[in-house]
């Protein structure tokens, strides 16, 4: 952390900058204070020279939207997106985001301070990051944001601060023609082979990070530096120093074959079945790291807004005072102030360099052997390197060599949303700083040459002057040994430049169609992509250079099928099928299971059915538009209540078999509006309805003016048999809040009566006032519908979650506790104490147990007779929200808790946590995301998990 520089912005919207926090390749982070709330925030501001590049702006904004979707838990929630319509005339529009400040140390700095982490800390670190990755991968996206500088260690767990290639960039540079050169951090075997990255690539990088955190070095360090890429692609990792209990998992993450790597959910479950938050309770950082985090927080909170003074170029601002000391023997020399990690530690706490396979591949010693693909760029003068590396990778006294300028790429700079992160920037990780660049690629349409024609060489441009770099001190330091050089990639077939070293094949950029590749071109394409993976990729004008051509590369070497993965505790079972509701149709409104055979989905436009055995959609019917949840009407019909009629559909093809319009069935109630179904039992459904009647004004007295007629809403509670298709009874009830139909919910269906409660949102203002903050339960006779009684239970509010059983016991939330009452007498029976600041959700009665749920994300079971607590477990969802909704499997052996963040499966008998499932939803091209909560529906030995349009069928006990 250092003082603001003269050219640093002082204001970001409502935030006042206090100090520089950290400087990255593509952005600068500032500590700032919200002038409205006084809250401390962390501003991430794009470098002005990069903010002017359209490709950078689009990607920056896309990664900001990804961070917003992942907010919560181990991702700090964003406070502002930094959209400022009025930009200064002399510079590009400011580009920044603001997030809540969390005191934390970058992983690389933490290793430098305290050395490798112990096993428990490793589990918490890995589980927390894997939990984030599982949410990203569930949407079909790839993060590509992991690096020792983007993973932070806070007092309560890890944090992730990069959500795509820009955030984790090792270097980023604006080039002529609106192009952007970006290099990432870590190299994976598939990138070395020129293949597209996938979710498994994130797991390989996670394995590297965990190995680094466990040992203070990387697992591919032994051997000549120039063979680093070959070792990553072919050698087994050195993991002897990794704790034995974690060695197998990290080895699996580092498997060469992506298909053999575990999923993020598997890693999270194996590292911390109770979740990273649960394992981190009570503290998890070593004493020295905890002290460093606390010291950072104290210094940040003590910062005051600097006074704005005229610019004085003669004198640079002094850094914020901090402890300092001479490095001890064996520690790395301090970095320059503007490149030092957050709160650089003194003495043995000197920040550790990043792992070797996390560094840029932009330069090697001049005597290093050249890679075959280096000849793809314009020939360099004799005695000079093919291309120049980044300034911070050259010796301080080395002159800046000239580098060929990147060709100009056409386009508008739109790179799309983060769902295509790896497709947009399929650049390889950033191996070490003393590597020769294999090449930087720019492949505009103009350079696509016919087969056998060499593309024109780009014109050389001088590199900007090198920045001064602190000399590197030799000696063992946690963080990585000698840097890796660029690997020599496999030589391609002979081209115009000689065997294996011919001119690089330029691939077309979208949207232009790709030429049909010949066998030789396909091999050279592989080399092009591989070179991009190792050395970086230039993108410009919104093009997906080299990686978005639409060509498909098929591996010709047969590989044995990967071994089946063993089932791990906490890992969700493989879904029997996954169904996605078509994006061309409106989102689902209701979902229901019909006789364990069909999943019936209603929407604004239609009702449709999905086969529960296969996940295939069988039919859709427009008549069922806006219908309520489907029910079984006997053995062979699907009942759906639409806004204007009752429908009975064929389960085979959705054909309407019977139709009863409300105007016909309730002819004496013209204009009847049917409310939500209150509940059902067997063939009987209960619902409310209302209609408007005109009440004539009374005849005026002699000499008086006649009053106006009044429009009055009348409401009824109905019982209807959907098998016999006839009304059983109706009873008048008070009208609800406008438009007038009260919303009832059946609490329990008993032999003699049915107990209902009215949703608080449909109570009129007069009813709320008369209730004095208490909720009411109404009892209606099963046969006649007559209102038998209305009762209140202790101080249970109108919003209190309530359940009941046939034995005459009512269970309701009272304050933070769950209480049981005799239904008919309101006599209290027992009480279960809840968590402070929380309330119970709707309980679920199952045999001798009652399953409970709380807003504090605790799920449990108590005995119905005594209220004795049987078990209580946390879903490990950070923070609080609505209480998870509960669903029992058909066998009642598995309890499913679904909330806004995840689905958690427990053993119903003893509360053993079985597995978790997360899906952040599909990200649309403009950043549309899914914020809907999860739902779970039981169907025999299957539980269907729904989140908006996505449905997963999981096998359960």
Major β-sheet strand ordering = 1-2-3-4-6-5
- List unreliable stretches of 5+ residues: 310-568, 921-927
Question: Sheet bearing the most strands, described?
Answer: 6 strands, antiparallel
What is the general shape?
elongated
Q: What's the β-strand tally?
A: 46
User: Which band does the percent of strand residues land in?
Assistant: 25-35%
Describe the structure.
- By secondary structure, the protein is α+β, with helices and mostly antiparallel strands.
- It is 15% helix and 26% strand.
- It is built from 15 helices and 46 strands.
- The strands form twelve sheets. Strands 1-2-3-4-6-5 form a six-stranded antiparallel beta sheet. The protein has a four-stranded antiparallel beta sheet with strand order 15-46-45-44, with no helix packed on it. Strands 16-17-18-19 form a four-stranded antiparallel beta sheet, with no helix packed on it.
- Helix 4 runs antiparallel to helix 6, helix 4 (119-138) runs antiparallel to helix 9 (264-271) and helix 6 (199-215) runs antiparallel to helix 8 (244-253).
- The longest helix is centred in the N-terminal third of the chain and has 20 residues, at 119-138.
- Mean pLDDT is 74; it is low at 310-568 and 921-927.
């Amino acid at each position: 952390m250092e003082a603001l520089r003269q050219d640093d912005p002082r204001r970001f919207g409502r935030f006042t900058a206090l100090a520089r926090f950290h400087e990255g390749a593509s952005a600068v982070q500032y500590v700032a204070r919200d002038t409205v709330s006084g809250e401390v925030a962390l501003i991430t501001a794009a470098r002005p020279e990069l903010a002017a590049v359209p490709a950078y702006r689009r990607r920056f904004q896309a990664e900001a939207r990804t961070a917003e979707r992942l907010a919560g838990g181990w991702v700090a929630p964003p406070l502002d997106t930094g959209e400022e319509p009025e930009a200064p005339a002399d510079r590009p529009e400011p580009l920044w985001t603001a997030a809540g400040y969390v005191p934390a140390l970058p992983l690389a700095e933490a290793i430098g301070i305290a050395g490798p982490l112990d096993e428990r800390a490793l589990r918490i670190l890995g589980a927390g990051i894997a939990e984030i990755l599982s949410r990203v991968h569930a949407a079909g996206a790839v993060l590509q944001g992991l690096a020792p500088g983007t993973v932070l260690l806070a007092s309560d767990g890890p944090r992730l601060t990069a959500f795509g290639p820009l955030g984790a960039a090792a270097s980023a540079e604006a080039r002529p023609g609106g192009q952007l050169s970006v290099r990432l951090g870590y190299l994976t075997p598939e990138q070395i082979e020129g293949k597209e990255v996938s979710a498994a690539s994130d797991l390989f990088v996670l394995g590297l990070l965990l190995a680094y955190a466990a040992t203070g070095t990387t697992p591919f360090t032994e051997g000549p530096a120039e063979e680093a890429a070959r070792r990553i692609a072919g050698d087994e990792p050195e993991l002897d120093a990794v704790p034995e209990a974690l060695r197998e998992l990290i080895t699996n993450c580092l498997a060469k074959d992506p298909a053999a790597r575990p999923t993020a959910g598997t890693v999270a479950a194996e590292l911390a079945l109770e979740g990273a938050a649960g394992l981190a309770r009570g503290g998890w950082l070593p004493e020295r790291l905890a002290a460093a985090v606390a010291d950072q927080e104290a210094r940040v909170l003590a910062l005051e807004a600097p006074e704005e003074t005229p610019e004085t170029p003669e004198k640079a601002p002094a850094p914020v005072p901090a402890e300092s000391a001479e490095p001890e023997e064996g520690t790395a020399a301090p970095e320059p102030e503007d490149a030092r990690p957050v709160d650089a530690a003194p003495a043995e706490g000197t920040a550790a360099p990043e792992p070797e396979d996390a560094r840029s591949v932009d330069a090697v010693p001049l005597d290093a052997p050249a890679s075959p693909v280096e000849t793809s760029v314009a020939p360099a003068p004799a005695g000079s390197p093919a291309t120049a590396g980044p300034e911070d990778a050259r010796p301080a006294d080395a002159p800046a060599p000239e580098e060929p300028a990147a060709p100009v790429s056409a386009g508008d700079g739109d790179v799309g949303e983060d769902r295509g992160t790896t497709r947009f920037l399929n650049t390889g990780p950033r191996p070490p700083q003393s590597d020769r660049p294999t090449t930087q690629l720019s492949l505009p349409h103009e350079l696509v040459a016919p087969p056998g024609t060499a593309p024109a060489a780009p014109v050389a441009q001088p590199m900007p002057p090198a920045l001064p770099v602190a000399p590197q001190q030799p000696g063992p330091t946690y963080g990585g040994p000698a840097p890796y050089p660029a690997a020599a990639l496999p030589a391609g077939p002979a081209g115009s430049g000689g065997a294996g070293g011919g001119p690089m094949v330029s691939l077309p950029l979208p949207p232009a169609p790709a030429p049909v590749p010949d066998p030789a071109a396909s091999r050279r394409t592989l080399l092009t992509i591989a070179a991009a993976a190792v050395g970086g990729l230039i993108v410009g004008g919104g093009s997906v250079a080299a990686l978005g051509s639409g060509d498909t590369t098929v591996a010709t070497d047969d590989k044995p099928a990967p071994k089946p993965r063993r089932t791990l505790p906490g890992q969700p079972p493989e879904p029997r099928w996954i169904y996605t509701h078509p994006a061309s149709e409106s989102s689902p409104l209701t979902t229901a299971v019909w006789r364990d055979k069909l999943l019936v989905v209603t929407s604004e436009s239609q009702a449709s059915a999905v086969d529960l055995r296969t996940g295939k959609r069988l039919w859709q019917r427009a008549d069922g538009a806006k219908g309520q949840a489907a029910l079984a009407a006997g053995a062979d019909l699907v009942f759906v209540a639409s806004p204007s009629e009752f429908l009975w559909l064929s389960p085979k093809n959705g054909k309407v078999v019977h139709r009863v319009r409300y105007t016909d069935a309730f002819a004496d109630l013209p204009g009847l509006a049917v409310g939500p179904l209150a509940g059902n039992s067997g063939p009987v459904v209960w619902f409310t309805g209302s209609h408007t009647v005109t009440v004539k004004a009374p005849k005026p007295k002699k000499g008086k003016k006649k009053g106006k007629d009044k429009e009055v809403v009348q409401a009824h509670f109905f019982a209807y048999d959907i098998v016999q298709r006839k009304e059983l009874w109706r009873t008048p009830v008070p009208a609800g809040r406008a438009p007038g139909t009260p919303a009832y919910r059946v609490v329990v269906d008993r032999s003699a009566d049915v107990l209902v409660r009215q949703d608080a949102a449909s109570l009129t203002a007069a009813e709320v006032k008369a209730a004095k903050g208490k909720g009411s339960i109404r009892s209606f006779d099963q046969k006649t519908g007559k209102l038998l009684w209305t009762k209140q239970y202790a101080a249970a509010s109108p919003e209190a979650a309530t359940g009941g059983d046939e034995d005459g016991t009512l269970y309701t939330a009272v304050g933070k506790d769950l209480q049981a009452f005799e239904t008919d007498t309101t006599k209290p029976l027992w009480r279960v104490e809840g968590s402070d600041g929380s309330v119970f959700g709707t309980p679920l009665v199952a045999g001798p147990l009652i399953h409970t749920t709380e807003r504090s994300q605790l799920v449990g079971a108590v005995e119905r007779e005594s209220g004795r607590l049987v078990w209580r477990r946390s879903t490990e969802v950070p923070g609080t929200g609505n209480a998870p909704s509960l669903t029992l499997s058909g066998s009642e052996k598995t309890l499913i808790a679904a909330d806004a963040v995840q689905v958690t499966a427990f053993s119903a008998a003893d509360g053993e946590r079985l597995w978790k499932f997360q899906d952040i939803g599909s990200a649309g091209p403009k950043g549309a995301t899914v914020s809907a909560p999860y739902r779970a529906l039981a169907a025999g030995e299957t539980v269907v998990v729904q989140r908006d349009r996505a449905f997963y069928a999981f096998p359960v006990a």
